[in-house]
Amino acid sequence: MRILVVNPNTTASMTETMRRGAQRYARPGTEIVAIEPEWGPESIEGFFEGFLSAAAVLERLATWTEPVDAVVMAGYGEPGLQGAMELMDVPVLDVTSASAHMACLIGHRFGVVTTLDRCVPQIEIALGEAGLMGRCAGILASGVCVLDVDDDTSATVAAMAPQARRLVEEAGAEVICLGCGGMSGLDEGLAEAVGVPVVDGLVAAVKLAESLVDYGLTTSRARAYQRPLPKRILAWPRPRG
Length: 241
What we know:
The protein is an alpha/beta fold. The chain folds into two domains: 2-95 and 203-215, 3-Layer(aba) Sandwich (Rossmann fold); 96-200, Rossmann fold (3-Layer(aba) Sandwich). It is 41% helix and 14% strand. The chain is built from eight helices and eight strands; from the N terminus they run βαβαβαβαβαβαβαβα. The longest helix has 17 residues, at 153-169.
């Protein structure tokens, strides 16, 4: 089985972090292929950068030619999922809803710890579209920029832990979700610091993707996610060099 993990930003080192994190938990025989778009922001912290990234990611997927069995969209709270579901003929999962769905299987309410406070509304919208905000105890920011997450993982966990404790002690969260794809691999450290289960969205999406492929299920074409209508789109996708 081959699963394509798509980092929505253009920072290749973060793509590699995601690949390693996903491969660590993938079962034997599952190959993780990780890519990033060829243009767009180096990190995504806001709506403008998110929508730019969505277009770049969809272009990358539209020009992808190698066979894969599933796609994981690795941006937490970022747009583009529904377009990818229309475009691809394999299951497409995103780390936001995957982490929340998995958290709901092991606790009544979950909380999310993300990067900057300005990213919280994007996550609220994504969880709302997935129908999961009713189980969300809250979303708090660690104050760590996306590009700083990889620099010092111990410092990142230390910045996240107080917010995770607030969600557990004050808001009633029983499970914490890592609110950034670049936080992959920090689940065990944060769980040890806080004392509740912590869900890495990238791992959750990969494990759910494996299950869908095993079950033989893929995106329904009945209505919402029909293939895109055949029409001319001016100057897109761009020729690849």
